[in-house]
Fold:
Amino acid sequence: MSTATNAPAVAPKYTNRLAQQKSPYLLQHAHNPVDWFPWGTEAFAKAKAEDKPIFLSIGYSTCHWCHVMERESFEKEAVGAYLRDHFVSIKLDREERPDVDKIYMTFVQATTGGGGWPMNVFLTPDLKPFYGGTYFPPESKYGRPSFMQLLERIVELWKTKRSDLTASADELTAKLQSMAEHDAHNAFPAGERELHGAGQSLLHEYDSHNGGFGDAPKFPRPSQPLLLLRTAKRFGDTEAIKAVLHTCDAMAAGGIYDQLGGGFARYSVDAKWLVPHFEKMLYDQAQLVQLYLDAYLISGEQRHADVARGVIHYVLRDMTHPEGGFYSAEDADSEGKEGKFYCWTHDELSHLLTVEEFNVACRYFGVTKEGNFVDHSDPHPLPNQNVLSIVHPKLSAADEPLLASARQKMLAARAKRVRPHLDDKVLASWNGMMLGAVARASVVLGDEEFKAAAEKNLAFLKAKLWVPPAAGAKTGTLYHRWRDGERDSVQLLDGYANLLAGVVDLYEATVDPRHLEFAVTLAESMVAKFYDPQNGAFWQTEADAEHLLLRTKEDYDGAEPSGNSVAALVLLKLAAICDRKDWREAAEKSIRLFAQRIHQMPQAVPHLMLALDFSMQEPKRVALVGDWSCGSTAALLKAAHSVFQPNKVVLGNHGPVEEFTRKLPVNEEYTRAYCCTGTACQPPTRERQKVVEFLTVK
Structure:
């Protein structure tokens, strides 16, 4: 006898081609009445054969407004039928194909003055855009047409003014091409002038009351405070350090940080870091770990180390594949309501906690009867919701165990709620970022669990996404996405550059020569596939990448640093470790190509400015000579990573390191540290303090 719980699910009324895809975002749209195609040959051939415009809709699986537009428009049969009759409709996951997204986002930003997701663009059959925007509502209001009205207008123009549309598309495509070009004859940036100017520009935007830079909505954008710490060190700017540490403290105390489970939301909708947009992205976690590690090394305050630990524990607990890969994101929504998983009511806590726990928790987290978060979901918004933040951090000795007990109960109760959707694809780029963060945390914080997690992650990526070089070859292949037992066929600079940076961080945290050997092969592969030796910098895609309107060189460090910025910095570091002048020249030529960007708007390329900073002098080198796997090496490694000294490299004397270090005399009994700048070295030492002093002194 069947029951309601084991009865078969009702078969969906519609199933389109997206059901065969691996992207969680595309799978979310697999049962829309829209006749969706994935990005590829089949869709393009159909558009040409039937002489129809292409409707390209781009988003990602944890995008709140993507979900909204799906419910309002793409789930409607009338919309699906109209799109099927008049367009070839393509769904694209921006996280899987940032190269495609970049092209059409540039178009939308240039023609509308804004951008975001969902992004909806209309193309000719040869992929040239002629109209685009972001979210389109189901009904016309505020002077904006409804989505259906827009579709009808596009169809009318396609029928009656085709030549005008195609001419406009040709002209706009030519403008996109010109926007993607850079002057290869720029002078190399002077360095200190640009770095100081960049720091002052960021400080001008500093919110001295709430922390952070700029107004609401506030994004962490870690590359900016990381740059401020570099400029502070170079110019002795204590105000810059105060601004960054204040920002770190404000974010960690705000609702943007998950006060129970760790991890940061993508941004805060207000200036106070209180109410987040609740989705959590892997790339934010990775970059913020790096920021809080730097803050800890500068401040010496345990609270900064605790935040870094909390973020990593969240990722290892909730965003990690059993075999070690890191998942991409968690949604803002659960049960159709943004933030429902994370928020609490005063009444709910009064029933969950003892009176003593309740009083302490409400005071500490700022919980009130009225709440501090307004749920805008329809048709039944949740009343009196509270986002947890640290409002009264000072606790008495008697209150501390009560808060700890309350946290445990709240976390256990929250675990029983319906969790937000998990985007469980594994991306080489974001995994590289997180690999580097976990690896560096393992040595800065002295945590063997983190080291094991980093090693496990790299093993996963090499097994699932990496194809080693064939016999006699120097270059291998790194694919971009793995999910559900299958990798894609896409290669992107972002994947190569970020994984290379992560592997170099792991090497410097362990001086395991196996990691350096892999880094060298990965660097050779990246340069061979993406570097432009004639003009400098790196293309976002391979030369033979299919179905791209144009090749671009990314030059903007936004929520994620660009592949060019990451490649420039990591090649400078790897060149110093391996004495590879060709890699240093490639990095410097890349910086030179973007010199105008650095001059005119340095705050737009903060990660590239880190590379500029690193390029300005010989880095300090801590060479650990001896058995890389012994205990004395571990102690010296910790010393080498205990100082905020970004312009340094840490290396061993095994594997493909530079010849000078390989020839340093070895003591068979214990590891010694050689502290060097160029070819000048201090006497070898076993004393941790000598290493610290070398890295501290200018």
User: Anything to note?
Assistant: DSSP finds 26 helices and 21 strands in the chain.
